[in-house]
Amino acid sequence: MATGRTHRPATRSRGIPEATVARLPLYLRALTALSERSVPTVSSEELAAAAGVNSAKLRKDFSYLGSYGTRGVGYDVEYLVYQISRELGLTQDWPVVIVGIGNLGAALANYGGFASRGFRVAALIDADPAMAGKPVAGLPVKHTDELEAIISDNGVSIGVIATPAGAAQQVCDRLVAAGVTSILNFAPTVLSVPEGVDVRKVDLSIELQILAFHEQRKAGEDAAQESAAQESAAPAPAVSGGADRRKGPDGDVPAVMPA
Amino acid sequence: MATGRTHRPATRSRGIPEATVARLPLYLRALTALSERSVPTVSSEELAAAAGVNSAKLRKDFSYLGSYGTRGVGYDVEYLVYQISRELGLTQDWPVVIVGIGNLGAALANYGGFASRGFRVAALIDADPAMAGKPVAGLPVKHTDELEAIISDNGVSIGVIATPAGAAQQVCDRLVAAGVTSILNFAPTVLSVPEGVDVRKVDLSIELQILAFHEQRKAGEDAAQESAAQESAAPAPAVSGGADRRKGPDGDVPAVMPA
DNA sequence: TTATGTGAATCCCTTCACAGCC
DNA sequence: GGCTGTGAAGGGATTCACATAA
């Protein structure tokens, strides 16, 4: 792929926007539920509600996949399930390894959502020799020494890292060297990987921090002055001997927006 | 432009873009690491590298908070740590409850990242009477019956849902009724909540599915025809008696990139 | 000279609104 | 009539590039 600009703006082969890809699993889950209730067809409106998005967005998303609906009727549930599964690559088997079998790793190993959608846990790997052989979620934990062999024997291309932060980069390097090209990282670290390797990050505490931000704002609507008061308690910047030169986004005046 | 639903421009009280808010925890983590190494100042370039973003983006992000840097020098680490913490609301104490103490709930309860950043686990709650009283991460698990009392006694405004999908909405309703206004949802369901309640969703299997999509594309570069072959095996759409009217994004012609 | 802070340009995503087909 | 599929408009976010300040 040529990094270059698209000489064909329309009709790009597989030009599915990243934002759309991220929503396909949502649609798939909603569709699977409908399928289990033997619902034959669904409208964009209904499906969008079930997936928690709006219908225009959903139709636009599906338009990148092709014209899989019927005007005046809606979408055939089974057919869409198949098409989205195929698009996501879930019609094939993906062996994954989970490295780091602490609380989180064990939770992941037991998580039903993995196995149910084309993912197969090929092995659980931990650095602690005491863990070796112990069964977790029905699988015996393997020692890190076997990592490379497991990956090549099973053709693993997706690895899940659930180790402490300190071990994550090292594990990542070994996974990549052994042939893994996609990594789901639960460790609170930025991983550096060579070009061509995908990393997705799930960070539990970051999500909470984002919630706290919004929560604070809700509370702050009543007492908008509070944060200004807090700011006065800030440690002075060490650099450039100290006149109070810090300025908030709205200066020091009360931050009231003209609606 | 009539039909305007949003009476509020939404998400603009302090004017910090949502995308920026989502990155502040990343910066904060990188800064904390620098702080622990007693690094006094850092440039946007260095900090951006540590956080895994590019420096222009970082500077733009910080510009929404205020002018906290020094031209020609960089940012004072301690000062920035404080400012970002304050902006995120981490200078105050946030009691949280975790509902659903299975593998994942236990993992969350043990997760150090929570306690370390202004979050305090006020209680662990589970519906299983057999769990009640059992210690997890040093806290005795409480029964769901006590949910409302725990929330009001502790002034909990943030709840974490780690129950099975089937129980999630019900738990959510009770949390909200009891006064919780921010929810971090690990259950694979779309929660419906009243206006004013924030929900963030973490879905482990969705992340894997997104990885699988990209992984498939990597593999497909060698054998681009394969997916066309698979498409022929698709179940025919049930709707509208059967002529082969399905069309992929490029019709039926082989989807080969000019590349 | 160095590195921040920020208008301006660009890119991407979302939403609108309606043409097209059932 | 109903609902999909999609150009076009609109809004955000990212990136560029340079004026600005230490």
Automatic annotation (TrEMBL), chains A, B:
Q: What is its main location?
A: cytoplasm
Biased composition range(s): Low complexity: 225-242
Q: In the UniProt record, does the keyword NAD occur?
A: yes
Q: Does the keyword Nucleotide-binding apply?
A: no
Region (Disordered) residue ranges read 219-259
**UniProt xrefs under InterPro entries:** CoA-bd, NAD(P)-bd_dom_sf, Rex_actinobacterial-type, Rex_DNA-bd_C_dom, Tscrpt_rep_Rex, WH-like_DNA-bd_sf, WH_DNA-bd_sf
Can you give the residue ranges of the CoA-binding domain?
89-190
Highest taxon, organism lineage: Bacteria
Q: Which UniProt keywords apply?
A: Cytoplasm, DNA-binding, NAD, Repressor, Transcription, Transcription regulation
Where is this protein localized, as stated in its record? Cytoplasm
Locate the DNA-binding region by residue range: 26-65
Give the Pfam families listed for this entry: CoA_binding (PF02629), Put_DNA-bind_N (PF06971)
Q: Which SMART domains match?
A: CoA_binding
Identify the residues that bind NAD(+): 100-105
Cited function: Modulates transcription in response to changes in cellular NADH/NAD(+) redox state.
NCBIfam families in UniProt: PRK05472.1-3, PRK05472.2-1, PRK05472.2-2, PRK05472.2-3, PRK05472.2-4, PRK05472.2-5
User: What is the protein's quaternary organization?
Assistant: Homodimer.
Its family remark reads: Belongs to the transcriptional regulatory Rex family.
The molecule here is called: Redox-sensing transcriptional repressor Rex
**What species is this protein from?**
Streptomyces lycii
